[in-house]
Amino acid sequence: MRIFAMIVSKELLSFLRSVMLVIVVLYSFTADVYIAGAGIQIKPRNVVVGYVDETGGGISQKILARLHKPEFKPPIAFLSQKKLSDAIFNKEVMVGIIFDSDFEKNYKTGKKAQINLLLDATAASQSLTTLTYLQNIIFDFQAQNFPLVLKSHKLFNQNADNHSFMALTELLSVITLLIVILTAIVFVKEKEDGTWDIMLLTPVNPKIIILAKSFSQVIIVMAGTVLAVGFVLFGAFDVPLNGSFWAFMLLTFFYSISSAGIGLFVAAVSKDVMQVAQLSIIIMMPLIFLSGAWTPIYAMHPIFQKLSLFSPLRYYIEGTESIFFRGTEFIDLWPYFSGVVVLGIILYWYGFRKIGKLF
Fold first, then answer.
1. Under 8 Å CB-to-CB from 26, ≥6 apart: which residues?
2. What is the pTM of this model?
3. SS3 6
4. CA-CA distances (angstroms) from residue 244 to 30, 159, 250, 308?
5. Which cellular component, as a GO term, is one annotated location (predicted)?
6. How many CA atoms lie within 13 A of 318 on its CB side?
7. Are the C-beta atoms of residues 330 and 247 closer than 8 Å to each other?
8. What residues have CB less than 8 Å from 180, skipping those under 6 apart?
9. Is the pLDDT of residue 124 over 90?
10. Mean pLDDT of 99-118
């Protein structure tokens, strides 16, 4: 009962009295997740295309006519390849298309017709995705009579909608960063406010103090997760939930505890809030990189693939995506729960011991 009283009467009320902190948490779980889902585009949007047409006619213009909104802006004509290259260099154009003088003649006579492309590879993701679009447009334009029909079936995301994926990914990132930072701040604020010594003199077991402070932040993050899932994922983006909502919440709870362990370690070695922010970023960036959130695990170097087994975020992301998109049964989620729970016990135990030495 004592730990429950500390969580409710002290830690949660202290959080609610900190207006700016409440605003930051609410923003992170609502507006930030919504902006990521609505604003981050993997598909090309409003790509500026320039072209040089030395054929003077027909086939090239039919191809260019297929570049339309919202993916492409109306193509811009250039008189020479030099001017087109200069426009790409000055970031006025992202993609350049060059039809040489023999293109239409070779196309009509069945010879090898070639289209030259210039891509601004500094915008690597956008330009390479645009290249795929252009290739599909060309292949669709050609009249090929193959005795083969290729039909593709999109699994788990039939509409190829990236909004739900980006919103869910942002939510997992918010949970990761907030639980670490909030857990660390709740201790470091005692140091900054000069109340650390007063806290040490309270007639309460230090273990109960650590548990109360860390679990209160877990409760805050869990409440924010429910808010984000209900109003943003389900309400704004209609993200499919093919598995169990309670399995996701249970996995989030265990993952929050593992991240809280990292927050306890950060609190033990930090003297102020600025150090908390710095150390949290330094520690979490490798874990995020090794989780597969940015680069698929199979695409990593074999050494990094093995190191990713020590990132609890890897199991959390894979488990969450399995619950939401694949509809994996609870019994089949045991590899993800096992990874999060085992690493969570180790991380929380280490952080608990580290912060406990200050009492």
1. 224, 227
2. 0.77
3. helix
4. 22, 22, 10, 26
5. plasma membrane
6. 21
7. yes
8. 259, 260, 262, 263, 266, 280, 283, 284
9. no
10. 80
Q: What DSSP string describes 37-62? A: HHH--SS--SB-EEEEESS-SHHHHH
Structure tokens at 75: 């193509």
Domains detected in the chain: 2-40+159-356 (no CATH), 49-141 (3.40.1710.10)
Residue whose structure tokens are 């109306």 = 74
Q: Dihedrals φ, ψ of 97, to 5°?
A: -120, 130
d(CA 292, CA 313): 9
Location of structure tokens 């869990």 = 222
Q: Is the pLDDT of residue 244 over 90?
A: yes
CA nearest to 48, candidates 82, 14, 78:
78
Instruction: Kindly state the average pLDDT of the residues 243-250.
Output: 95
